[in-house]
Amino acid sequence: MDNRYRLFGETTPAEQFRKEWADYLENNNLEGRIILNNAPNRIGKTITTLKSLEKTDAKILYLADRHNHISEVEATLNNPRVVHWWGMRKLCQQKDNPSYNFLIENHVPAGFTCQSCMYKKECPYWMQWHINEDSIVGAPKELLPTKYVSKNDWDYIIFDEIIDKAQRVEPYCKPIKNETMDSHNLTLLKITYDILKDIIGDQTTADEETLSYFKEELKDINSNYLPRLIRQIKYEGHIDNDIKPVLGLMSRFRSTVEWLELCAEHGFKTHFYKPYLYDVLDLQNKYQSNVILLNTSLKNQFYEKMVSNYQYQLPTVEEFPFHFENKNSLLLHYNYKARSCSKIGLDNYGAEIYIMAKNLIRFGNKKGLKTGIITFKNQNHIFTKETDVVSYFGGHQGSNTFDDVDLLIILGTYHINPDGLYQKYFMLTNQLLIDDPARWNNFQHINGARITLSDNTLLNELKLYKLNEEHGQAIFRSGAHVQNGKIVIVFGYVPEDVTNILKYNKFNTEKGAKISISKWLKKTNHHK
User: Fold this and answer.
1) What pLDDT, in 10s, does the model give residues 401-411?
2) Which of 152, 228, 257, 387 is the most exposed place for a label (fewest CB within 10 A)?
3) pTM score, two decimals?
4) What is the CATH number of domain 13-86+128-168+273-319?
């Protein structure tokens, strides 16, 4: 039974925030500005932003991580101005044709795949790009580098929770049989392929002459080799596994050239990461668009580090000021012997913690509370019998299954693995740490939890940013910050900012937690 307000009734902190944010957007003269809103998740940032801006006749680009997020926004707005941009896999009218499907699955650009297609004039894939000056376009971040985005003079660009996402730039150079090249009359392309193999194998960089050669070869591929091969696939039925790496080499040659340019600038690397944020900033620089960054837990100073390598002068980012708290929900934090309840820590004392968590879940059930838990994925099975809703770190985002949970337990301190941190570090600095990893021998106590840090300052900032993001979203997953009467119990890390939002108490024993819960339920007049 969804009776989420049975303890208090609906609260107003989120409503007040939404009003202040809408007033800020509607009453400020926004022109060529970059605005950061880093309020907690589940508070209504996205919909409030779009509902405020749809009152104007502006051309708006909304960028998100996944199509399902865009679809949810589209359904909520229910505005005919909204256009959802999809890819070929979704909209191609010939995707059941083996030849077309082969081209789509091998990432051949639509401009080549769709040449001479009888359905092109009425194809929804191509028709979707024709938008109005007041359209509200929802698109996944992967479309940012395309001409459909770059050639539109957007009034507003909304970048929703994807600030640290990046496009991987690398060469495509998989093994190709000599006879495959020969049978398709690609002798000159084979020479280029051999040069590329040598550059990768020798870990060298291309000189100016070689770079010029590859750029000319890109033109030949797009005007000659690739269209010819596609015609053979479509009309002569040349579909086989041997041709796949040839298609890949040609259809991704632009990325290969970009990789060669980056190697020439930064030294040889097997790959690079280009932040999607840079594509947004390019649009801002080109059209003086207003950029609105919606990103939970992102701080201004970390944003400044992210754009420190950007090539153009940028407007100073404006951080939307807000004060948000809901002391009518309770946060209980297990705080004993600096236990962070990391995966390694739980190997030592996990049995004790699991029993305590199970008993608190049973206690909540007896009090008539709906219970939920977020923990490590491999621990989910421990709690499935007693708990109404179970999920795991990294898997709960976007879920509404916790909406009517009264007592939510967060068990564990989630750490992004070092390779993932090195990837994001590389994205920001183009400095590779994988071959010279940082030393993780420093420690910091944050709200009583012992957190392992490295000897690299930026790497530590990245780790704490991702830690705050994951745990902030987990703690607020049941809506404790926007609904009254919620109880959240954390065995592990709690971001410092979160303690200022909810009613925050610590406990060391199971008995102490039960006493706190009982007092809270009595105070809130909740009875079984």
Assistant:
1) 898 999 999 99
2) 228
3) 0.88
4) 3.40.50.300
